Amino acid sequence: MKDGFKFGTVSVPDGESGxxxxxxxxxxPDSVLMNNLRALRNGTPEMVMEPGTYRRLLHKTRGVVMSxxxxxxxxxxxxxxxxxxxxxxxxxxxxxxLEGILSKQDVEYVRVIELEEDVIKLVGxxxxxxxxVEIIQADAYEYKPAKGEEFDYVWHDIWDTISTENLPDMTxxxxxxxxxxxxxxxxxxxxxxxxxxxxx
Length: 200
Description:
The protein is α/β, with parallel strands linked by helices and 200 residues long.
């Protein structure tokens, strides 16, 4: 692990490509107050935000797709902790997870599958000089690794929001790689399952 590295760091610069943008915002105590009250009322303390400076990946019509807020860090922490050896990541996003994985000395190779060309244009150059990284533009559901290819860890993170509607597709991706990796992780799956139990 790189000395002093903190998971949640985003080195990708602000920029814009097509319908996508990476930017920086400053959250004040007043601006996070309503969000935090709503999170506590809804029984979702992981959604509480602290005032501070944050990085975001936004789509012109879909809104914020990823950020490095407390919630995003907590729900991606398992990817950071469990990545080792050869890793496959479905979803490039803001590059936060990839940056964290690459900070680990025992990570030999990371393949990232990302659907959006403009996201790759925005985020990919930050990792261009790391020979361990391969970014492939493809649909995570359709992409097929080479016959017999295996990974030590696979992380799935292609959803904009936490929703019970994502659960079938999460299961689909996990099944796809169950013979290719001994361990997998899925962004927000536990929270989506909790919501399903809560609301039926």
